[in-house]
Amino acid sequence: MSTKKGPTSPSAENRSPEECLPSTSGFSSSKKPTSSSLSPAKENSGNISISESTIKHPNPVEPTPSKWISLNVGGKVFTTTLSTLLNKEPSSMLARMFAQEDAMCPSDKDGQGAYLIDRSSQYFEPILNYLRHGQLIFDGHLSPEGILEEAKFFGIEGLIPQLESLVQQQQAASMEDLPLTRRDVISALIKTSHMTELRFQGVNLAGADLRKLDLRHINFKYACLQRCNLSLANLNYCCLERADLSFANLEGAQLLSVKGLCANMEAANLQGCNFEDPSGVRSNLEGVNLKGACLENSNMAGVNLRVANLRNANLKNCNLRAAVLAGADLERCNLSGSDLQEANLRGANFKDAQLELMLTPLHMSQAIR
Fold first, then answer.
1. Neighbouring residues of 177: CB distance < 8 A, sequence distance ≥ 6
2. What one-character DSSP code corresponds to residue 52?
């Protein structure tokens, strides 16, 4: 009896690899398909595809706050920490040079690895110290204007207002110390009544051009008139007590009854000046310093020059009648052709003085030494 056999399925050995794969339609599996099995790249090319999400990017290396950095500023090397450059002024150019998240790249390096910065080292040092401790400290010989320019360049915003204030104070102080000019003096003369005493006591008039001006009765006590041009000026009845007239030009000036007690007129030009007051009031120059001054052809009749310093002074052809020169130092003074009639020369020093062609001979009664 023969048995009818049904259709037999091909054996596993005879199956093709494609027939072994499960069908995607009408077939369920407890295993979830992997991403590699469903990858179109594998189906098309057989290559393994790695998605962008699986790529691991290396984390950026954050700068260490205590990292030491060398800066070569104008040829001088400064060593500081990264935290000093970043913390105090985070928006400054220096902070941006070394901040990791900023796009600004540091400058080139020198042979020792210091970053090169082409700026002034002496003005950079106060800025670096400010970043270190927050205080503006600099040597007296440095100009605040120079530090201000560097602060603006490096973008140190917290320091700029302080430096601008210092610069303004310095400019204001320098303006106060500036000497008055001819225009200033003329303006004061115009605004002041001739009946009112004009006071320039302690005023700085150094180098001022005051020639030919009417300066009568003005108080110049303690004033600075160094190298001032007072030629042909009218200084009658002025107070020049302890004023500084060194190297001033008073040629042809009128100095009647002037008060110049202990004034400094060293190397001044008083050639052709007139000191004699017709009313008989003496000009008082007691203790004045006329060392090296030129008084040639001046009329100094009756002038009080007691204990004055006239060393190396030129008194050639001067009228010194009845002048008081007691105790005066006339060493190496040129008195050629001068008139010393009735002059008081008691105790005066005439060592090496030139006394040729004098109109009146010196008498022993005048007790010169």
1. 204
2. G
